[in-house]
UniProtKB/TrEMBL annotation:
PROSITE patterns for this protein: ENDOU
Domain annotation EndoU: ranges: 30-206
Swiss-Prot/TrEMBL catalytic activity: ribonucleotidyl-uridine-RNA = a 5'-end dephospho-uridine-RNA + a 3'-end 2',3'-cyclophospho-ribonucleotide-RNA
UniProt entry tagged with the keyword Nucleotidyltransferase: no
Record text on subunit structure and interactions: Monomer.
InterPro entries from the UniProt entry: ENDOU, EndoU-like, EndoU_C
Alphabetical UniProt keywords: Endonuclease, Hydrolase, Lyase, Manganese, Metal-binding, Nuclease, RNA-binding
The protein, known as: Uridylate-specific endoribonuclease
Signal sequence annotation: none
Family under the similarity heading: Belongs to the ENDOU family.
EC primary class: lyase
Classification via CDD domains: XendoU (cd21159)
Length: 206
């Protein structure tokens, strides 16, 4: 899970400090436990798109400027769910060009908190929170949530220290432009929003 491994150096100064666990208290997590946890998280994801809520038209491979839209249908009810709607609210908060400082407003910080609260209210993150606390990886739920905020929204440099221009969330969910090429954007919600707005043209796949 990327949310467990993406870390951001530095930050905007708005991320609350993360309480430290007592040295020696965390218990080792085995590969078998991680495999079991990943299956449990997948099974617990009742928030994902269900049958008929998301339809894509992959077409053939190769470029085709006359290709139909990639997203044939996206359910409005799906996008209205708290995690989806609050994710969409965040997607206009970022400067995509690397090398330019990200500037967070109070409203954007509020949107970050609302998205994180909605995500933590899902069965997936509730299960993950119970697991990491049971293993002593964090001293409290508050510590876990503070570090999750730092992992997702803590700012760091993707331009060799030139600027605090990136975060785990921006790279994965929004996408960035570095040296003229798109980087990140591993997120269908952003892709369908860009296509709907006329800012993305699907040319097939390779």
């Amino acid at each position: 899970l990327w949310l467990l491994v993406v870390t951001g150096a530095g930050g905007s100064g708005e991320v609350p400090p993360v309480p430290q666990a007592v040295p020696g208290s965390p218990r080792a997590v085995s590969d078998a436990e991680l495999r079991e946890l990943s299956e449990q998280l997948l099974a617990a994801d009742s928030n994902r798109a269900g049958p008929g809520q998301l339809e894509v038209n992959l077409q053939g491979s190769g470029s085709n400027s006359a290709a139909p839209r990639l997203f044939s249908y996206v359910s409005p009810e799906l996008l209205a769910r708290p995690t989806f709607s609050r994710l969409l609210a965040l997607l206009d908060n970022y400067e995509p060009q690397t090398g330019r400082d990200e500037k967070e407003t109070a409203e954007e910080q509020r949107e970050q908190k609302e998205f994180l609260d909605a995500a933590l209210d899902t069965p997936v993150l509730a299960l993950l929170e119970r697991f990491v606390l049971s293993k002593g990886l964090y001293p409290s739920a508050e510590a876990f949530r503070a570090e999750l905020h730092s992992m997702w929204f803590g700012l760091y440099s993707r331009s060799s220290g030139k600027a605090l221009d990136s975060s785990g969330f921006e790279h994965v969910f929004h996408g960035e432009v570095k040296k003229g090429a798109v980087s990140g954007c591993h997120n269908w919600v952003q892709l369908q929003a860009l296509e709907r707005a006329g800012r993305l043209e699907y040319l097939g796949y390779t």
